[in-house]
């Protein structure tokens, strides 16, 4: 596929200033993506835009990552309230984490810029003279977050947040002047702020540049993808373990799996069509979800970790024996389920792991056949001396090691 064709097929087109998208195929350009360093990790909401960037890079485009050290001190304006301010030290630490994740996902070194590096030397009057005079109040008041905050039930907005789109617009101007970047990629919710930079460059440099935005990814219920239950799915293993990350993708619904495969993996059209045919023939096997979970985990956490969480999942819910897990995989498993030292009886293990409240309850479960050890049901209170997996019912586990 050509770049323009792949962007449409994968669902990576929302609003754009590119008049004829086939122009994207004619020559490679330099682009940048801006990320708000409010956290030391991005989420799968960010990941959709990152995968879009990866498509551009595959087709020869040069990428720069911008983290908002300056804009981060203000905070990307929300529709309902002002964001919590962070210290410069927090912002710098967050920027490092985001840059590491970006390069992991892109699979190559990507230049990092921080807009604090140029804003720290700009004088206020000079900024107003060059940038402030290029915008009318009508333009600024028309921003969705501004209208929401100053409306009848709005929480109000500070002058700092009101100025956010001017500051973000200047980033594009600066990168155009210093690096020749003439394309900005963004999420659809940032499109209004991003065209501020396009407007500035046209006014001050008499040159046309473009903005291309990625749609907001929603689940089948219309909720923001990955946040339907209020908990974000993070790209950092410190916030969302590789195992839980894999499980999230493994459990997406059938209605959305096709679009998720296109957005969040690098599988091509033929590969995805084949997966969907297999899924249709045997929905219960969840072949598409398994491929999705593996591919996304491989991109974010690397292939060795992806292979490990597949092995762990097969031990817990399939027919693979626990003695096939490596020491590293056992350590990963120990972070996800209760872990008890060997040398105890089954009843003692169930009690120590908190899976039962009394010896009597444990013995009744044994007698009823609700307890298994390494896949085999047990009825006697045997001692477990080796690395083993004790299972209560269908989904409660204890690792003995």
Task: Describe this protein's structure.
36% of the residues are buried. Helix 10 (164-179) packs across helix 11. The radius of gyration is 26 Å and the shape is elongated. The model has no long low-confidence stretch (mean pLDDT 91). With 401 residues, the protein is α/β, with parallel strands linked by helices. 47% of the residues lie in helices and 11% in strands. The chain starts with a helix and ends with a strand. The strands form three sheets. Strands 3-2-1-4-5 form a five-stranded parallel sheet, sandwiched between helices. A hairpin with a 2-residue loop joins strand 8 and strand 9.
Q: What is the makeup of the main sheet? A: 5 strands, parallel
Beta-strand percentage?
Answer: 5-15%
How many E-type strands?
12
Report the end-to-end length measured between terminal Cα atoms.
50 Å
Instruction: Indicate the structural class.
Output: alpha/beta
């Amino acid at each position: 596929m050509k770049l323009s064709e792949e962007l449409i097929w994968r669902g990576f087109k929302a609003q754009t200033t590119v008049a004829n998208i086939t122009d994207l195929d004619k020559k490679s350009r330099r682009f940048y993506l801006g990320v708000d360093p409010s956290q030391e990790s991005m989420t799968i909401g960010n990941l959709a835009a990152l995968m879009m960037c990866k498509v551009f890079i595959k087709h020869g485009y040069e990428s720069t990552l911008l983290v908002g050290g300056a804009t981060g001190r203000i905070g990307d304006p929300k529709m309902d309230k002002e964001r919590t301010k962070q210290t410069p030290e927090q912002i710098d630490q967050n920027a490092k984490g985001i840059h590491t994740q970006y390069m992991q996902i892109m699979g190559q070194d990507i230049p990092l810029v921080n807009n604090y590096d140029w804003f720290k030397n700009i004088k206020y009057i000079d900024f107003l003279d060059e940038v402030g005079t290029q915008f009318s109040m009508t333009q600024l008041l028309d921003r969705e977050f501004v209208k929401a905050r100053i409306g009848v039930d709005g929480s109000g907005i500070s002058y700092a947040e009101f100025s956010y789109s001017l500051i973000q617009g200047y980033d594009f101007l600066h990168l155009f002047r210093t690096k020749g970047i003439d394309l900005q990629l963004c999420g659809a919710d940032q499109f209004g702020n991003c065209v501020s930079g396009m407007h500035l460059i046209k006014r001050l440099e008499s040159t046309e540049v473009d903005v291309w935005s990625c749609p907001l990814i929603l689940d089948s219920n219309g909720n923001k993808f990955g946040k339907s239950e209020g908990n974000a799915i993070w790209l950092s293993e410190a916030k969302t373990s590789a195992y839980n990350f894999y499980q999230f993708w493994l459990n997406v619904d059938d209605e959305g799996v096709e679009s998720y495969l296109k957005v969040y993996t690098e599988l091509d059209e033929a590969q995805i069509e084949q997966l969907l045919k297999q899924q249709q023939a045997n929905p219960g096997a969840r072949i598409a979800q398994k491929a999705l979970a593996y591919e996304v985990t491989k991109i974010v956490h690397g292939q060795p970790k992806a292979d490990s969480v597949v092995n762990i999942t097969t031990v817990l819910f399939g027919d693979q024996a626990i003695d096939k897990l490596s020491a590293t995989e056992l350590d990963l498993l120990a972070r996800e389920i209760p872990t008890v030292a060997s040398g105890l009886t089954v009843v003692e293990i169930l009690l120590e792991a908190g899976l039962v409240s009394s010896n009597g309850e444990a013995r009744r479960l044994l007698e009823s056949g609700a307890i298994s050890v390494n896949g085999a049901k047990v009825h006697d209170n045997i001692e477990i001396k080796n690395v083993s997996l004790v299972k209560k019912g269908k989904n409660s586990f204890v690792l003995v090691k």
